[in-house]
Amino acid sequence: MGCASSTPVEEGTTGSNPFDALPAKEKPTKQYARPKWKSQEPMTLSQLQKKREEFWDTQPHYGGDRNIWDALKAACEADQETAKLLIESAGIIVAAHDMTVCYDERGAKYELPKYVLSEPVNLAKDQ
């Protein structure tokens, strides 16, 4: 029995991985790209750091597991290989290739703003 949008499993697939039946371009990748973005008003690195600190201090109070928030913070501050290991070891499911939307194993949603993931392209120099 299936839902209206389900499709039968193709012959030759085991059915253990739901992404096996997807075309290659629709399969989720394990490469997490840092988003490129432009702030409305150019900000300095110190302003960006303050905004990031404010996010990490307040966001966990709106739901989700504190350990997942800590793992996401560590992954945002790490290089790509370390971030990948942190995400996999914490059981985080990355729904968007740029890590802006993630889920934990229980289904709780974690939305990350682009400013915690990367610097804007119009970053101004501190004076």
UniProtKB/TrEMBL annotation:
Ranges of residues in domain DC-UbP/UBTD2 N-terminal: 34-126
Biased composition (Polar residues): 1-17
Region (Disordered): 1-44
A matching Pfam family: UBD
Protein name: DC-UbP/UBTD2 N-terminal domain-containing protein
Organism of provenance: Pleodorina starrii
